Amino acid sequence: MQTELSRRLGIEHAVFGFTPFPAVAAAISRAGGLGVLGAVRYTAPGDLARDLDWIQDHADGRPYGLDVVMPAKKVEGVGEADVEALIPEGHRQFVEDTLARHGVPELAEGETAGWRITGWMEQVARGQLDVALDYPLALLANALGSPPADVIARAHERDVLVAALAGSARHARKHADAGIDIVVAQGYEAGGHTGEIATMVLTPEVTEAVAPLPVLAAGGIGSGEQAAAALALGAQGVWLGSVWLTTAEADLHSPALTRKLLAAGSGDTVRSRALTGKPARQLRTAWTDAWDDPAGPGPLPMPLQGLLVADAVSRIQRYEVEPLLGTPVGQIVGRMTSERGVQEVFDDLTRGFERAVARLDRIAGRP
Amino acid sequence: MQTELSRRLGIEHAVFGFTPFPAVAAAISRAGGLGVLGAVRYTAPGDLARDLDWIQDHADGRPYGLDVVMPAKKVEGVGEADVEALIPEGHRQFVEDTLARHGVPELAEGETAGWRITGWMEQVARGQLDVALDYPLALLANALGSPPADVIARAHERDVLVAALAGSARHARKHADAGIDIVVAQGYEAGGHTGEIATMVLTPEVTEAVAPLPVLAAGGIGSGEQAAAALALGAQGVWLGSVWLTTAEADLHSPALTRKLLAAGSGDTVRSRALTGKPARQLRTAWTDAWDDPAGPGPLPMPLQGLLVADAVSRIQRYEVEPLLGTPVGQIVGRMTSERGVQEVFDDLTRGFERAVARLDRIAGRP
């Protein structure tokens, strides 16, 4: 699975694997893809440095990348406390009522919330970058619009390619104008923040809109047949996130959540604002139902919702309260039915890709 | 573009074209695909016979098919008037208020509503079948679940293959159990009634669920690259509907609607219950906005909504009231940017398919 872009990056397969787990990222790179570590959960720069050291030591010299969540627009002098103050009391009460209804215990004294999306705050993301750009990254991706111009310049000085996620051709064109190198076209069926346009329609639109920039297709891709489909649509590679969540190398810290992922069908996700305030695809749970219920107060805009629910999500995860327990994941969750190692996922991907190409050759009447 | 199914049907390309226009259906069959006439708008059996005669005379002896909307469950002794009586007065008033706000004129005296979805009523669909099964149909498709067992048997007696649309693997399995021959897997991005699962995820799920029955992929397919993607996912053919709406052979009776379709982007559709009471993808208009507005009464369930809005939609179309003017269409509308003849669409499809296969061969390192 070799494209112009995979050759440029020196990887064997044009498969880009996004994951919050260093062990998965390193395994993806070892298997011949490009492991991309999600940075959003790292609030302490030291933690990120520790995990990048680990990847560096375990990637067998193969390239890897980092994914940050950095807003292009800077909001001067606004800290977490200022934002917290904007959260209405009724919403806080709704969180407590929902947790109480499901008997979710408080965190023990001294136990801190593990789940905290503060990486979207520019000062946090910049701290991550200061750490990360000391490592030999092959790719820096931004999940929230184009990165600021100075960040793109710093990456380019170090020969780091810059990618940005887009859910429409218009967004993709803005990224291209900002000077990025790769667009990740994120379809409706993808896990996490998504737009309304499905991968089948979005990929060729974005490819045409930003040509000759390379495009990675994201959303609905978990098999080699799906990778072949995405490459047929003009992508120069595929961007997979969900499929790694149930690999042996992943560490969800929750057997109950792993069980839910393995049992879920493709219809068991929902695009909801319950987690961050922006529409993000995730497992449908009693938690997303509560926020999507017209009788409730409804989610706050980003970034308020993420701050509002951070402690609650930590408590739900810590105590594995099954009806509320969820995670961002794409519709491909329906095909994640058994735990595999990362290398096994790659073997399945390449075999499925070969099968699909041979099938198309037959349909086209090629020898 | 030859699959086992296309060979069985004796067509040159595994392209199935759904259209309400006899001239488009015949042109699709002449171009080497299978033209499938949508029957839902025919209330008088004589009109359907006239148009099937026309197709028979203009298809150059190539095979063609018919698409009906027939409920599997029979509701005994319920006529249109009984159903009309269930519509609340407040909803009728909302229709009139919405039309008045946009200055939509009444139909002239003696002018009858042209738009009327009554084909979903079993007695109407059975009348269509009595007419249609006298013609040498190659395919009978049902857009609303599995057809009743006796209809499948009548079709099979005449060597007519029976297809049914499905938006999930579960629905597809029910169709297979009912004895149909082909499943049309209709993805989220498709025009008309759709589920939530995107084509990229749905196609392989349905293919695996009903194997060895052949599957046609529908939703998001308008180019040869998209056809190649769908076939890579395991489909034995592609089912296209939206793309024909702006062909030279189509007759929308509304230059304004054609202009709207040619101008619309992939983000300009919405999955709304405004037209039939079931979620159907269509152009987003002031009409869909009014029904999707939480402040309004909201759509009634099928079949009430279709009856409620029939006259209103006819008036909107008759007078081309642009803000309200819409039609079912998929996200692929963003790529329908110029009028082409049906043969030209086929030429583009086959060229794009060849390009995509050659591209995948290169990526796979094949000679």
From TrEMBL, chains A, B:
Keywords: Dioxygenase, Flavoprotein, FMN, Oxidoreductase. Coiled coil: none annotated. The keyword Oxidoreductase applies. CDD domains: NPD_like. InterPro entries: Aldolase_TIM, NMO. GO terms for molecular function: dioxygenase activity; nitronate monooxygenase activity. The keyword Oxidoreductase applies. It comes from the Bacteria. This is 2-nitropropane dioxygenase.
